[in-house]
Amino acid sequence: MKRAIAAIVLVMLAAAADAATAIRFGKLVDGQGKVITDAVVVVDGERITGVGSGDAAVPAGATVIDLRRFTAIPGLIDAHTHMTFYWDRAPGSKPWAQLGSLGAPVTVFLAQENARKTLETGVTTVRDLGSWEYCDLAMRDLINRGAMTGPRMFVAGYGLHVSNSRVKPGVVEPDPGQADGVAEVQRVARQQIGAGVDWIKMYGSTGSDQDVTGSQTYTLEEMKAAVDVAHKAGKRISIHSYGPDGARDAVRAGADSVEHATDMSDAAIAEMGRAGTIYVPTVDHNRYYAAHKDEYGYDQAVVDRLNDYTKRNFETLRKAVRANVKIAMGSDAVFTGFGENTRELEWFVKAGMTPAQALATATTNGAQLLGMDKSLGAIAPGYFADIVAVEGDPLADIGVVIHNVRWVMKGGRVVVDVR
Questions:
Q1: Each residue of 262-307: pLDDT tens digit?
Q2: 19: pLDDT confidence band, cut at 50, 70 and 90?
Q3: CB of 338 within 8 A of CB of 117?
Q4: Are residues 90 and 148 in the same domain?
Q5: Is residue 306 domain-shared with residue 173, that is, in the same domain?
Q6: DSSP strands (E only) in 3-151
């Protein structure tokens, strides 16, 4: 008898453990063109098993989470971050000067703050484009095994770059990302793949931090070499170019995405559209630097350069929107930029997108860029249960997505709840 009771209890416990969760929303924007009122999303484990409407869509015995005050949107995708760029704000320190000085293990641990702030913006997936000592791979793997809370990460390890420092006689300083010439590009790209990266990142021009020059660094042939290595290994490649020349050749080389890409000609933008290259403009990134000038120690001359670049970056974005180029949201978040990941969406609407089109840059388009369009970027059966609850109507006001995130689920687990 005792064995029978024990067996019944075990069955009941198993059934409870297997019980689905039904999440109710006042409205749902599914990322596939549908808007559902009185919506119900059924989640089992890390995946969505059903989407419906009304009481009848709630499975018997399901655990119900009532969020009918809010609108559901898919978990957002930030297509350009640097999650391991952490600054501890120590008195007298500056972000760029401190980078790397804390050591890799300490940095990965402390960067959990960046991960938490990213989730709070509704971003549940990031493409992280460059780190050091493979901190990004470590962070990705810790998150994937559940040892750290953070967004799903697709990482690039060391970005490929040309020689950019003077020779120090008698001193050898290994630089795993440095590559000059086709053969070196091939070797370094293969080493990144061997290290376990998801993406290849290539710096096709100058430009970063307060430097907004954008002079092309790699030749078309070198870019093609990197693209070829990546694609033959089943990987994708992103090429950074602050200026128009590197961006033009990145498109011609077959890059999957081009980052920043200011001052592109109409012809280059049209070529980008025909090639299906995804444009990640990161307009807000330099607005962020100017707004945080005191943290970085920038004087007015630097701020003026940043503001001028932001203006030109925005004008290029406007031309790309008019040309129907595929665009993905990328913040290029570093240091204190986490928590502002979705500010880029405001620029997209200013450039002529509807709120729905802007939202697509952070859902559908981001998922396509990652090759995850059957698992991310939508609220639909079979997709990861990455769901964000916002207060207000995101199809009427994109600011709702930026400022009114109230609840976030990533892979079936609630990671933010500020209702």
A1: 999 999 999 999 999 999 999 999 999 999 999 999 999 999 999 9
A2: confident
A3: yes
A4: yes
A5: yes
A6: 21-29, 35-44, 47-53, 63-74, 76-81, 123-128
113, pLDDT greater than 70: yes
Q: Are residues 189 and 306 in the same domain?
A: yes
Out of 370, 389, 407, a domain closes at 370
pTM attached to this predicted model: 0.94
Range of the domain at 30: 2-74+378-417
| 197 and 317 housed in the same domain | yes
DSSP output for 248-307:
HHHHHHT-SEEEE-TT--HHHHHHHHHHTPEEE--HHHHHHHHHTHHHHT--HHHHHHHH
Tokens of 299: 């004087």
Strands 35-44 and 47-53: antiparallel
Average pLDDT over residues 337-364: 98
Tokens of 143: 């998150």
State the total domains in the chain: 2
Helix axis angle, 220-232 relative to 182-195, nearest 10°? Answer: 30
Give Cβ neighbours of residue 212 (< 8 Å, ≥ 6 apart): 242, 286, 305, 306, 308, 309
